[in-house]
TrEMBL record:
<dbReference type="Pfam" id="PF13279">
    <property type="entry name" value="4HBT_2"/>
</dbReference>
<dbReference type="InterPro" id="IPR050563">
    <property type="entry name" value="4-hydroxybenzoyl-CoA_TE"/>
</dbReference>
<keyword id="KW-0378">Hydrolase</keyword>
<dbReference type="InterPro" id="IPR029069">
    <property type="entry name" value="HotDog_dom_sf"/>
</dbReference>
<protein>
    <submittedName>
        <fullName>4-hydroxybenzoyl-CoA thioesterase</fullName>
    </submittedName>
</protein>
<comment type="similarity">
    <text>Belongs to the 4-hydroxybenzoyl-CoA thioesterase family.</text>
</comment>
<dbReference type="GO" id="GO:0047617">
    <property type="term" value="F:fatty acyl-CoA hydrolase activity"/>
</dbReference>
Length: 139
């Protein structure tokens, strides 16, 4: 298995819907946080530093999917394991598995790109080739 990182999260009451189970949208937030934490654990600099040094502003999503296997509720500790499943020239696929102990709660798949701001219009971004040094840190 490729290099992975585990992000622990304790479910808060505010994360739950009226049935007292985690609202599905929270998993996407947690997967996003786990993605950044993965890169930090691998030694990739903060996005503020990468923007200053190379223009790369981060790894925006271009596709996201999730499957919900079992419910979770407030007070429970979830371990979200994240890894890069596939590297392409300008995009990569991240996988996430949220577990409560040995029980799989949710699984996620994200397609992300490394992005820079457009030179003539800083409100627009574009994908750039994945930096080889950062990929090597994460493999």
């Amino acid at each position: 298995m490729p290099r992975s990182h585990i992000h622990r999260y304790r479910v808060a009451f505010v994360d739950c819907d009226p049935a007292q189970i985690v609202h599905f949208s929270n998993y996407f937030r947690w997967f996003d946080t786990a993605s950044r934490e993965f890169f930090t654990a691998c030694g990739v600099p903060s996005w503020r530093d990468t923007e200053r040094d190379s223009g790369i502003i981060g790894t925006p999503l271009v596709d996201a999917q999730a499957s919900f296997r079992n419910p979770a509720t407030y007070g429970e500790d979830l371990d979200i394991e994240s890894w890069v499943e596939a590297w392409n020239t300008k995009s990569f696929v991240m996988r996430h598995v949220a577990r409560r102990g040995d029980t799989v709660i949710a699984e996620g798949r994200e397609v992300r790109v490394f992005a820079v701001r457009e030179a003539g219009d800083p409100t627009r971004i574009r994908a750039v080739p994945i930096p080889a040094a950062w990929r090597a840190l994460c493999e």
